[in-house]
Amino acid sequence: MMLSTVLKLSRAAMTTARVTGIGLLSCTPPPLSPSSSRFFYGPKGSNASPAALQMIDYALSHARSLKSDESYAQGLLVLEQCLSMQSNEVDDVTSQNSRAIVLLAMSNLLFERGAFDDAIDKLQIIQGLEHSHLGNDTSRVLTDKWLQLFVNVTADIDCYNGVGSKVLNVHVKALKGLVELVHGNLESAESFFQASQDDKGCNGNVALSYGEFLHSTGKFSLAKELYQKAIEEISANKEFTDPHALAACCMSGREVQLAATCALGQLEGHLGNFSAAEEILTRVLTKTEEHFGSHHPNVGTILTCIALMFRHKAIMEHSSSLLIQEGLYRRALDLLKAPSLETEGTKADVARRDIVALARGAYAEVLCVQQNRKDEGEKMKSWAQTAWRNHRLSLAEALEISELSSTVPVIDARISRAL
Question: 136 vs 116, which has greater pLDDT?
Fold first, then answer.
């Protein structure tokens, strides 16, 4: 069924290309879904081929409706077919935008499945398209290569002007602040976040990132206000109408809303409001499963947050929830695709390393209090300690719980990093 649809779309696209003589332009294309139109038409009027947009819309819808490895592979196959039909010989804006948007869609799907290096490769190809309007939007995908992409953004920021320049400047500074926070450079991070506080730009990603900085440094009340601001502003914009949402990947409205809700749940737990924390984190778990699929690694990240909340609650209330915690850690580590304990932590090639190490470190504590499983727990603890690479806190500090402590780890569900 999927293949026949692709072939049908391909034939339609090729027919219109021959008729018009100017590439993949359809005279009377079927109406695009709202998601396509809002993703692919930006403020600069960056038009692309309607035939290409139709194939992209089908590929994205198919991949995300089933949320399986197979559906994503089929979606990428559709996009590869679409890309192969874009002419490399035509350098006009429409043709290059068509290629750029196809590559951007491919990058987005690769990113969603955790293929970060492949996603970056597609973005680097876009940057080589001189006439595409999308060449300056590729920096919003955050992976371990943020700094390299940030340099590209700051080099190009002068290309913008007016209000757009101010808003972009705010977002770039907040992005740099987040990078500095990931690397544990709190003073540098604070300087960038303070410089990003602009009435028109302090929302969404900016509010969430600054909130995480305040949260991680013990300024809980201010952090809560920013988390709520990020959630409410995105919720009010039900259509998620940011024209660059596709380029944003994990920084798009829906992902920011999920991450801000997750951060708020963690904050309530750190404040000792465990009933509120459980309700919020359970809600974000359901929404994450709906958005990414029940087997996606991001679900494992949320489960880790819930397990850590139950651990905190048990310690503060002098109660026990070992069975609940163990079940959550096991499920989380399975979804996060944690490597075997036989693989040395420092050498393990694992995505979401922060979360895996944190989950295993906490899980090790559950095992170590059981006499017959203490050896297994010590082995897991050793693995977690060697795998942990956070620059601000040691693993022991991240797991330490005290009423007097104002320094806490915050899991950013957008990027699956412990801050």
Answer: 116
